[in-house]
Amino acid sequence: MGDLKPPADDPFDSPLETGLRALVVLEAMHPRACDLREVTWYDHLVVNTADMTDRDGVAGPESLHPATPGRHDALTVRRNAVERSLMLMHRVHLVDVRHSEDGIRYAAGEAAPSFLDALQAPYMLRLKDRAQWLAGRFEGMDADEVAAVVDRHVGLWTVQFRAGEGDRP
InterPro entries from the entry (predicted)? Predict the structure, then answer.
C-alpha cells in the first residue's frame, strides 16, 4: 500500500482526496464512463469552475480552489495522481474499470451513490454541486468535443499532454 502515499514534497492531493473528487465527478457523469485523460481534465475543472463558461457563455460557479497563477500548468502533472486515485477507488469497489477496444474507462460503481450520500461536509456538498454543473456542461459531448472546450479554457498544450498514453490496454 506504499504507492497510496502522496510524494513527500506534496502534502496535498493525496490519492484519497483526489479519488473522492474523481468519484464525485464520475457519479455526476453517470452513466458515462471516462478515460484517464477525461477524468484528469474533470479533476482540474471541478475545482476551477469559475474558469469555465456554460454553453451560453455564462461564467461557471465560484471555484472551490483559489485562482493561483500556473494552476492550468498543474494539469500536466495530475495524470499519475488521478490514475493512482482511481485505482484506490477501484480497490474499495467505488469505481468500475471497464476494458474495451476503445481503451480503459472509469465509471462510478454501484456503491458510489450511497457512499457519497453519506458525505455531507460543506466542502463535499459544494464539490457535488460543481460536479453536477460540470456534468451538465459536458452532457452529450464526445471526448473530442470535451477536448475542444478544455482547449478553449485551459490551453491546447495542456489538453494534448501525453494524449493517448496509458489509455489503451
Answer: ABC-3C_MC2
Domain edges within the chain: 2-159
Q: At what angle do helices 143-153 and 122-138 cross, to 10 degrees?
A: 120
The CATH fold of domain 2-159: Arc Repressor Mutant, subunit A (1.10.10)
Residue-wise pLDDT tens for the chain (169 aa)?
445 544 444 546 789 999 999 999 999 999 999 999 999 989 988 998 888 877 777 788 988 876 655 555 566 678 889 999 999 999 999 999 999 888 999 999 999 999 999 999 999 999 999 999 999 999 999 888 988 888 877 764 444 443 444 443 3
Cα 79 to its chain centre, rounded Å, is 10
- From CA 72, how far away is CA 39, in angstroms rounded? 15
Q: Is 103 left (phi over 0), alpha (psi -120 to 50) or beta?
A: left
